[in-house]
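Sequence in, structure out. First:
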Amino acid sequence: MGKRCVVIGIVGAVVVAVAALSLALAQEGGEGGGGRRWDPERMRQRYMDRVKEAASATDEEWTKLEDPVSKIVSLTMQPGVSGGMRLWGRRGMRGEEPQTEVAKAAAELQSAVDSTSPAEEITAKLASYRAARDAARAELAAARETLKAMVAPKQEAALVLAGVLD
């Protein structure tokens, strides 16, 4: 009976946490009381604002830093580029067709894996995906080096902590 109470307590806590998170997200959405659909652009802008604040960048500094930071953020969101898991599925975060070369190659590879494609086709799609991913990783490394050269050491440290720089 003791284990049963613990399990019921844990389940109850999880339900309360999920409900609280749902309520917080609905309130954050505002406008109309029911909340809005998830907006990746809005989320991206909030992230960019946090990066600016973390780097203690003035408005003048941010006009120079915003484009390089934005490029890095875009590159790291591509499947497989930053070493993270591919969380958004074949069609991206909002269900649209993939736009980047990495996303296109990933979608083609996933399609080949899901179908009865011959091994040679899967091997070719895998090579295409790796080539696109490696090119994006090289572009990311170059973008990070460019940004690193533009910032003061304290800003560099803040950008490392924010995950923008390595």
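Second:
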Amino acid sequence: MTYTKNNFAEFLAQVPGFSQLPTVQIDQISEQQIQAWRYRIGQKIISKERLPEQVSIIYEGQVRLLGYDPHTQLPITLKLLKPGEVIGEISVMRQLSCETAIASTEVVCLTLTRAEYLRLISINQEFAHIRQDHSDLIEIFDILSAQIATNKALAGLNLKEISQQALSRSQIIYLPPGKTPEHLLDRNLTWFVSGGGTVTNFPPNYCLPLSNNNGVIEVKGDTPARLVGINPTDLSFLDGNRNFQTYIQPANETEIQTNGQLEIPYAPIQEEVAPLEKVPPQIDRKRKYPIFSGRGELLSTLACFQMLAKHLEVPLRQRWCVVYSMNKSNAKKIFLFLSVLM
């Protein structure tokens, strides 16, 4: 299938938020800012291991949005994303990587750099309102996962279903840098720090305990803090255990254009995060190991068995050791060696 810049502009004009932008601006974004990428079936589009450098709008195909069980770390399909839905947006707004998305069919995405996406939010009020003033399933799932991650008694909960219910009644607000009186928050909701600016004493996914007096919430830096309000009814699974937990937590190829038609390249495969280097076990150098000596094939073999048996604290049958040294068949050696330790 062939594509043109006009195809992309017409498509963006139908995406919520982008549809509020002037036609001239949509054309400019399509011509100068959009990079199209193609993803193979099973290829990762975004990973929660790192904050995305771009925001991807699904143009064609279907994508699986994954969450991870907080106890088993097994993947859970939270949602099947279709054309018009945006990947990486929540992570960018939270400034906290929380999304993993994998192509379940061959997929074409239109991508904007993180900087360009944030610029659009900063200069277009309607665009910002539609795109950022609501929560997302992965955001709720991530926050609730943090509350039960250290509580084995809550293992086995259907966190996907709980998150879907909580999402339907959740609210989003942004606190500006500086101090905000607590009374401005709806006390009928339980508020969690989602990300964005730094809230003093409260890291992301931490519950804000509102006081009964005239307290304030302080946001440091120049970035507003994103808060998520969840209906207490949707947190009933935590009843009896209300100790809310804290949760600390590539260059684009040049597109080929011929006669106005675009050849969309395949996106580079994301490098997996390297596992932590294993620390070699500490050797107890003060421990004394048994030493036996022997000369010749027979006695040296017997000495090896004596040291092994002494170290493992098992009885040694010396008559089998002698037979072992006299039999050269590998099968007999294995059988007789096991017999020594039985």
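Remark: Residues 245-258, 272-285, 320-325, 331-342 have pLDDT under 50 and may be disordered.
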